[in-house]
Design a protein that fits this description.
By secondary structure, this protein is an alpha+beta fold. Helix content is 62%, strand content 16%. The protein is built from two helices and two strands; from the N terminus they run ααββ. It has helices at 7-26, 35-65, and strands spanning 67-73, 76-81. A hairpin with a 2-residue loop joins strand 1 and strand 2. Helix 1 runs antiparallel to helix 2.
Length: 82
C-alpha cells in the first residue's frame, strides 16, 4: 500500500489551480487586460494545458502500475492489485 498519493495526483492539483487563475485573469477578475497581456496569458494557458495532459498521462500509467502482477498457475489467471 502506498504511503503517499501517486506522483501524478500530487502534480494535478497545482496545475489545475494554475489553469483556474488563468481563467480568472482572462475573465477580468483583476481588471481588464490589454492585447499583449491576453497574448501572454494565452501562451501560459497553453503551456499549462500541455503540462496537465502530461500529468494525466502519468496518472494513467500509475493506474496501470496498481495491477502489480499477472501470473499463471494451475491453468488460471490471477491478478493481484496492491
Amino acid at each position: 500500500m502506498r504511503e503517499h498519493p501517486p506522483f501524478g495526483q500530487e502534480l494535478r492539483a497545482p496545475v489545475a489551480n494554475l489553469l483556474r487563475y488563468v481563467e480568472l485573469l482572462r475573465d477580468g477578475a483583476a481588471g481588464e487586460l490589454n492585447h499583449s497581456q491576453l497574448t501572454l496569458l494565452a501562451r501560459a494557458e497553453g503551456s499549462a494545458q500541455q503540462l496537465l495532459a502530461m500529468v494525466e498521462e502519468l496518472q494513467r500509467e500509475e493506474s496501470l502500475d496498481d495491477v502489480t502482477e499477472v501470473y499463471f498457475g494451475d491453468g488460471e489467471v490471477h491478478l493481484d492489485a496492491s
